[in-house]
Amino acid sequence: MDRYCVFGNPIAHSKSPEIHAAFAAQTGQDISYEKRLAPVDGFAAAVQAFIAEGGLGANVTVPFKLDAVKVAQALTIRARAAGAVNTLHFTEDGIVGDNTDGAGLVTDIVSNAGVTITGKRVLLLGAGGAARGVVLPILEHRPAQLVIANRTVATAEALVEQFAALGGEGVVSACGFSALEGAFDIVINATSASLSAELPPISPSIFGPGSLALDMMYGASPTVFLQFADRHGAQLKLRDGLGMLVEQAAEAFSLWRGVRPDTAEVLQALRAKL
C-alpha cells in the first residue's frame, strides 16, 4: 500500500486523511494517508523519516509551508511564485515541491461556484502567505483587474511588483483597505482575521449586486466576513474555504496518482459534517 501523509503542528484537526481516503475509494487507488505531528524545529527530519519508511508524498500545513520550500530539491512554477509549498512529491530524482492552494481556490470559484474570473474585477484582501499562493492562478484566468489590499501597503506593493508583468499593464495594483474604490465582482478574504472572528477594515461598497464573496476560512457557521457581506450586498454568492480545501487536495492527489478525483460528493459529505 502506497503511503502518504500530512505534516502540521497542530494537526489533529486536519480533514486531509478523510478527503484522501474518499478520493482513493472513488478512484480505486490502494493508498494509506495519515496525520503526522512534526516538531516545530524538526520538519526536515520528519520528512526524511517518512521517506525512509516508504512515503511517496505529503501535504504540508501550518506552520511548515516555508520550511517545505527549503526541503524541496525542485519547485514547480506555481510553488516558486507562491514562495510556499503545500505538497511534496518524493520521486526517484528527489523531492519536488508544489503549491496547489491557488489552483484549488480557482477551481472552486470557476467550477463549483460557477463564477467566471476572466474579464472580472477581483479584490484580494491580504498580502500574506495565503494571498501569495493564489495570485498566479487568478492571473492565469485573465481578470480585467486584480487589486491586492493590505493593512501594510508596502507588502501588497511587493506582491504587485512580483506579478505585474504576468497580468499585463495596469491589471494588478495595490492599496490600503481605506483606499478601496468601487464594487468588485469577486472579493476574496485571504487575511487571518476570521480566525479571531474579526473583520478586515473594509467598506460595504466593495460588494456589487451579485458579487461573489469568498472567505478562505470555513466552519459550521458563516465567518464574520461572510456575515458582513451578506448584510451589505444584494444577491451575493457567499462561499467559505471548504471547497478550496477539497479542490487543493484533489490537485495534490492528481499529482501523486495520475488520476483526478470527482470532488462534488466529497465536498457535500464534508459539508454535512460541519
In short:
It contains 10 helices and 12 strands. It has helices at residues 16-27, 43-52, 67-71, 77-82, 101-112, 129-139, 153-167, 224-232, 242-257, 264-273, and strands spanning 2-8, 31-37, 55-60, 74-75, 87-91, 94-98, 121-125, 145-149, 172-175, 184-189, 207-215, 237-239. Helix 1 (16-27) packs across helix 9.
Describe the protein.
The protein contains ten helices and twelve strands. The chain has helices at residues 16-27, 43-52, 67-71, 77-82, 101-112, 129-139, 153-167, 224-232, 242-257, 264-273; strands spanning 2-8, 31-37, 55-60, 74-75, 87-91, 94-98, 121-125, 145-149, 172-175, 184-189, 207-215, 237-239. The strands form two sheets. It has a six-stranded mixed sheet with strand order 2-1-3-5-6-4, with helices on both faces.
Mean pLDDT: 96
- List low-pLDDT spans: none
Give the termini separation: 30 Å
Helix content: 25-40%
Largest sheet: 6 strands, mixed
Quickly count the helices. Answer: 10
Number of strands: 12
Biggest sheet: strands side by side, in what order?
2-1-3-5-6-4
By secondary-structure content and strand pairing, the structural class works out as alpha/beta
Radius of gyration (CA) equals 18 Å
